[in-house]
Amino acid sequence: MPEAVEYKYKCTICGKIFSDKDIFKAEKKALHCEQNHDIVYVPLQKSWVRALIGFIQTGEKGLISKELMDTLRSYR
Fold first, then answer.
1. Domains of the chain: which residue ranges?
2. Are residues 51 and 63 in contact, defined by beta-carbon separation less than 8 angstroms?
3. pTM
4. Among 32, 23, 20, which residue's Cα sits nearest to residue 12?
5. SS3 (DSSP) at 46
6. What is the pLDDT of residue 76?
C-alpha cells in the first residue's frame, strides 16, 4: 500500500508552505496561518482607489469624498 510522504498547503497571504504526512494537519496549519495575519478587507469602488492613490501622491484632501472617509472609518 502506498505511503503518504507529505502533503503541502500554502498560506495565500504570506506564501509560507506547510507540509505534513497528514493532509488535514497540513491544511489546518496553512489555514491557521491565514487567519492570524492582521488583514482587513475593505470594499472600495475603483474610483475610490484612484482617489486614494491621488491623495497619497499629491496630499490633496479634496480628492477624498465623505462617503469614502466614512467607509474607511467604519473599519478602524
1. 1-38, 40-76
2. yes
3. 0.61
4. 32
5. helix
6. 85
Contacts 24+ apart (CB under 8 A), 35-42: 37/11, 37/13, 39/13, 40/75, 42/71, 42/72, 42/75
Query: Does residue 3 have a pLDDT over 90?
Result: no
CB 18 within 8 A of CB 8: yes
CA distance 7 to 73: 41
Residue pLDDT, tens place only, 21-45: 999 999 999 999 999 998 888 999 9
Residue 21's closest CA among 13, 12, 29, 31? 29
Is the pLDDT assigned to residue 2 strictly greater than 80? no
Handedness of CA 7, 12, 13, 15 (dihedral sign): positive
**Residue showing cell 492582521:** 38
